[in-house]
Amino acid sequence: MSDTRLRGAPPDLAPTSAPPSVRTVGVTKRYGRRGVLRGITLTVQPGERVALLGPNGAGKTTLLRILATLSRPTSGTVEIAGFRPDRDAQAVRSRLGVVAHQSYLYDDLTAEENLRFYARMYAVEDAAARIDEVLERVGLAGWRRERVRTFSRGMQQRLALARAMLHRPSVLLLDEPDSALDRAGVRILARLVEEHAAAGGTTVLTTHDLGLGLEVADRVVLLQQGQVVLDAPAADLDVAEIERRLGYR
Amino acid sequence: MRRELGRIYAVAWKDLLSEIRTKEMFGGMAVFALLTIITFNFAFDLTGVDRAASGAGALWVAISFAAMLGLGRSIAVERDRGSLDGLLLCPVDRGVLYLGKLLSNLIFILLVEAISVPVFGALYDLPIYRPTLLLGLLLGTIGFAGIGTLFAVMASTTRAREILFPVLLFPVAVPVVIATVRVASMTLSGTTGDVGRWLNLLVGFDVVFLTIAFLVFDRIVEE
């Protein structure tokens, strides 16, 4: 399959007839005899914001790593914007923006140098202007010439968000993006996700903060022991029931 | 093609920039190489043995072990801080990542050689500025760094990577080590008859193993 599906349109402006942003069918993942994911079937349409919730060990991070092409499923199929990672890995990767537990930043480079490096790797056009823009959006414009080593954990997380948005991905995969963020940082995160969705972009995020999940997502998927046990619009949710299932009550 | 070259340069550039600021890796490599050369200088009786042969061996021991320090660390650092995943997420051919890491490793090792070879020449009182010697060193360094970068990635996924890396690397690198030492000893002793054959071996090794490493890197670096 050639990488021509969205030719002529920027990745964040997918046509209405576009395939699902994320589609998994019967995805399993085993480490030895231990099954971490047990048949995950999930479809996320362009523009949707999905919160993946679940207790520790439910398989949220494993699922995101598989979607991000960093891990291969033991069985099942994955498609990102109609492309399969095992066949069109580069087409998939160019559409993904990923924030994970690690920041993927280089401590001894400045914020601007880190973004310039990734801009080159993602072949971002007009990189200087785009770097200015994303730094401004995460509130780090004044820190652009500071080395990442001097940043707090929260600032590194903001810069990781900027890195993930840099190449205008159509799908954002955010693994606990609110970790280490202060209130201002969480507000920035919520605004970025909202703006991304308004531009037709898709977001799949994991979080342990149910309040944030319900605030930024319009759909909630609950994972338990590697299986989807609930998939519902955020507005329809019984918060008390979710909290009970997550073990918060 | 031009875009891919730019990406290779970008990977090497961020390694070099980080190293210029921290001096963690290069400093250790250079000091190790110099200490080895100095130790061998005092260990050998240079008046009673073939100075060219023992000197060539000492020089390559110093360079190869110093290179191993750097090769292992350059990949381990990426793996430990999680930035290797950041590289793997980039929509680029894995071979580009390999060539970028190879380029930065090669530059570090050549810089170590630029310091240690003149010191070696002075201590051993040997004529080091000979084209065949320098060509042999360059070809040997390319081959050693080429397979070293690949095996460093392979070993970095294991807990015993410091032990596993040299165990994996040295058996495969034996032809490079032997050929480079032979080129150096023959050049330094002035018997250049068979040098061409050893240089050809080095060229062949570099072409074959760099091609293999480039082609299999995606299998090695991914889960």
Q: What's the topology here?
A:
The complex is a heterodimer of chains A (249) and B (223).
Chain A: E1 22-31, E2 34-44, E3 49-53, H1 60-67, E4 75-80, H2 89-95, E5 96-99, H3 111-121, H4 127-137, H5 153-165, E6 171-175, H6 183-198, E7 202-206, H7 210-216, E8 219-224, E9 227-233, H8 239-246
Parallel strand pairs in A: 3-7, 3-8, 5-6, 6-7
Antiparallel strand pairs in A: 1-2, 1-4, 8-9
Helix pairs in contact in A: 3-4, 4-5
Chain B: H1 2-22, H2 24-43, H3 51-80, H4 83-89, H5 94-124, H6 131-156, H7 161-189, H8 195-221
Task: Describe the protein in words.
The complex is a heterodimer of chains A (249) and B (223). Chain A has a domain at 22-101 and 171-246: P-loop containing nucleotide triphosphate hydrolases (Rossmann fold), CATH 3.40.50. In chain A, 33% of the residues lie in helices and 24% in strands. Chain A has eight helices and nine strands. In chain A, strands 5-6-7-3-8-9 form a six-stranded mixed beta sheet, with helices on both faces. Chain B contains eight helices and no strands. The mean pLDDT of chain B is 90.
- Calculate the mean pLDDT score of chain A and round it: 89
Number of helices of chain B: 8
Mean pLDDT of chain B: 90
Terminal Cα span of chain B: 27 Å
Q: Could you give the distance between the termini of chain A?
A: 48 Å
* Shape-level CATH architecture of the domain at 22-101 and 171-246 in chain A: 3-Layer(aba) Sandwich
List keywords for this structure.
heterodimer, A: 249 residues, six-stranded mixed beta sheet, 9 strands, disordered N terminus, B: 223 residues, mainly alpha
Q: What's a concise summary of this model?
A:
The complex is a heterodimer of chains A (249) and B (223). Helices cover 33% and strands 24% of the residues of chain A.
